[in-house]
From TrEMBL:
Keywords: Endonuclease, Hydrolase, Nuclease
Database matches in Pfam families: AAA_33 (PF13671), HNH (PF01844)
SMART domains for this protein: HNHc (SM00507)
This protein's name: Putative HNH nuclease YajD
Coiled-coil intervals, chain numbering: none
Family classification: Belongs to the HNH nuclease family.
Native source organism of the sequence: Lacticaseibacillus zeae subsp. silagei
Superkingdom of origin organism: Bacteria
GO molecular function terms attached to this record: endonuclease activity; hydrolase activity
PANTHER family for this protein: HNH NUCLEASE YAJD-RELATED (PTHR41286)
């Protein structure tokens, strides 16, 4: 007997031959949207605006593939234009690539997009005083296929310094990583759960991820407890008090209305 697989046809589960090709509704939906956008899409790639931009980027990148260093033959959108239409003319989102590297990048993107359709990626923003227990909360709840942005851990990774130390010049680089992550998240569904750990809420995040379903958590450990923990860890509290004050100020301005408050 030929092997069978489970497929969804018009939304109903059915057993079909293992080698049958079933186009899921999600694919059809994707194609429909794509066809509607197709005319704008083609218009854009035939426009003088795009041709000029493409030449500029090739000059900027010395006509070298930004992945492998061989001769570049085209200009690629780092975040695909179909995922982020507004960013299609942003030079920071463009790079010269060779044909091979572009082929593999596009394949990875297509696979990711297909996987993403079956995934309901959750995004959780976690804020709170330093030493309130944010990282601990994430560790307790994170799964096997998650992405965690945690300022302190990235600082440690970039500088090789112990946790909660760092240097002021590396701060910009941690910030760059954060912004890249936000822009990529806007267009993707790759993970089960994304955790963004920070001291206080970030407005840039709110506007970039406005279209996404974002959960907000405030780890509401009281200030005295956090201070005790910080001094036990031997940390320099003078810098951290500023961050705590800012958080208090935001609390008094009622900036945490949509945050779920968790004691830790
Ligand atoms: Zn290449």
């Amino acid at each position: 007997m030929p092997s069978k697989k489970l497929a969804f046809i018009n939304g109903r589960p059915q057993l079909v031959d293992a080698n049958a090709r079933v186009r899921s509704e999600a694919d059809r939906q994707y194609n429909r949207v794509r066809n509607e956008q197709q005319s704008d899409y083609l218009k854009f790639y035939h426009s003088n605006e795009w041709k000029q931009l493409r030449d500029q980027i090739l000059i900027r990148d010395n006509s070298l593939c930004q992945r492998c260093g061989l001769q570049a033959s085209l200009v690629d959108h780092i975040v695909p234009s179909e995922d982020d239409w507004e960013d299609r003319t942003n030079a920071d989102n463009l790079q010269a690539l060779c044909r091979d590297c572009h082929y593999w990048k596009t394949r990875r993107e297509t696979t990711k997009r297909k996987k993403g359709q079956h995934r309901a990626m959750k995004i959780t923003v976690i804020v709170g005083y330093p030493a309130s227990g944010k990282s601990t909360y994430v560790k307790r709840h994170q799964g096997q296929h998650d992405l965690v942005y945690d300022y302190d851990h990235i600082m440690t990774a970039l500088t090789g310094l112990p946790l909660h130390q760092g240097n002021i010049d590396a701060n910009d680089y941690v910030q760059l990583i954060y912004e890249l992550i936000l822009r990529k998240l806007k267009a993707e569904q790759s993970f089960d759960h994304v955790w963004l750990v920070m001291t206080y809420p970030d407005e840039k995040l709110e506007s970039l991820l406005a279209s996404r379903d974002v959960e907000h958590i405030l780890i509401d450990t009281d200030r005295d407890t956090c201070m005790q923990r910080l001094s036990k860890q031997g940390r320099d509290v003078s810098q951290l008090i500023k961050a705590m004050n800012k958080l208090d100020e935001m609390k008094s301005e009622n900036k945490f209305a949509k945050f779920k408050k968790i004691k830790n």
